[in-house]
Amino acid sequence: MKAVNIYLNFEGNTEEAFNFYKSIFGGEFMGGVMRFRDFPPMAGMEDMPPLKEDEKDLVGHVSLPMTEQATLMGTDITSNMPEKLIVGNNVQITLEADSVTEAERLFGKLSEGGRVVMPLNEMFWAEKYGACIDKFGIHWQINYTGDKAAG
User: What percent of the chain has pLDDT above 90?
Assistant: First the structure.
């Protein structure tokens, strides 16, 4: 396996969400932000209903590298897509921090404007672990194993 990437779907606010994530993780969007109006015709999509005019400027694809092995990607769900967006706990992203300080920073930023599910505390497997739902409805787990990794 070369990499594991995380793909998030939003209902019209992908760009806002990804600018938020970029402010936390840094980096640049790979290839910029691609709008639906910029997509070339795609094989197998000829039978899909056309996009509504107000959906053409929504985000068709955006990628934000988080590490050399992980990229956060996303899109806006449009009215012509066969599946509708359901915000829930079906996606959780776990971040393994490099230090207690980084775990505290990530947890603080991601939970800001959202909801803390489990406060950042010591656990039997980790020096720090916490879970939150950010202001966009995405579920995050922050983990710093630290010295407990040895067992």
Answer: 64
pLDDT digits (tens, 9 = 90+) for 101-129: 999 999 999 999 999 999 999 988 889 99
pLDDT of residue 1: 47
- Which CATH number covers residue 37? 3.30.720
Residue 23 sits in which domain range? Answer: 6-76
Query: Are the C-beta atoms of 132 and 115 separated by less than 8 Å?
Result: yes
**CA nearest to 145, candidates 131, 118, 120, 125:** 125
The residue out of 22, 47, 76 marking a domain boundary is 76
Q: Which of 34, 51, 76 is the last residue of a domain?
A: 76
Structural contact between residues 120 and 150, judged by C-beta atoms closer than 8 angstroms: no
The predicted model scores a pTM of 0.80
